[in-house]
Fold:
Amino acid sequence: MTDQHTTHTEVRRPGDVPAGTPLTSLAQHRAEAGERLRAEHDRDQNAVVGNALTQLAVGEAIRRTVRSERGGMVAQALRLGATWDQVADALDTTVLAAVDDLRLWAEGQRTLYHQHLADGADILVGLDEDAYGEVMGWVAFGLGWATVETPDARAEQKNRLRAAVAAAPMLDTVGELRALVEQLPDEMPLSLDRHTRALPGEPNEVHTISPRLVATVSGLATEAQTSRPGLMLTQVFVPFPAEDEDQAAVATRDDLPAYDELPRAAHHLERGELHAGLQATAVVLEEVAHLVGEVAADFTEHDEDGSQLRVEAKRITHAAERVGTLATTVVEVTE
Structure:
């Protein structure tokens, strides 16, 4: 196949496909590579490998093109009279997931329009405010549709997700993670906990990963705001040696403070736990004093600069000592 968009000798990765190549051309290009592959089997090894790679690359280009056009196709189906449950069935997903897909596409198209507008482009691509408002009306209607029509289905799905995550309290291998992910929806949001968690004062610990369900919000503070379950992976230190049940009980706790002193100090102080919070704060100040007086000071060009930093480090060290002393004397407010 040779046309204005592609030739069979040049596509070895999706990026080799020129932007704007029609899907019909891509499909034909992939089919012709398959025909050549069958015809050249056991002949020219280089040609066989090349056509196999072309099939892969063009197939991936098709997948990306279809995915990028998904939001526009959803909008077209709704504009022509399709219902939200029909759209969800066509995508083999939930109404909420389909609604969120359309919302994300609309926001991207709106941003694209305003970028072209700001650049003074001759042709404005994307959604202007009127078109964006129309799409967001469908999004708002879709949220209402999901709420009214499918509460039982959504509750059943959430229960399945909870059961799958609860069955894997600790993930210590890639295989365990893969087994869990295979039970979860492809469109499910994934996030990482910002902090490693640990029991305070535990002398012997071993590192593991704990999955948990969290609520993820899209379109915050807008009419199109949605909330759906997401998967968060948290790094946790659990007691060792200990029975598997005891380790899992620690890994799945949602009240564990952060392992590092600064976020741990914030964790305790925000809860009015002054003793633990001030002790962690004192450790943070000691680390800051070390960085200022011993690390930073060694990289100064002038001796007087290094001396000034060491003086400041001593002041920070004294502050750490005072805070540490206060940690043992202050009285916490009790309810």
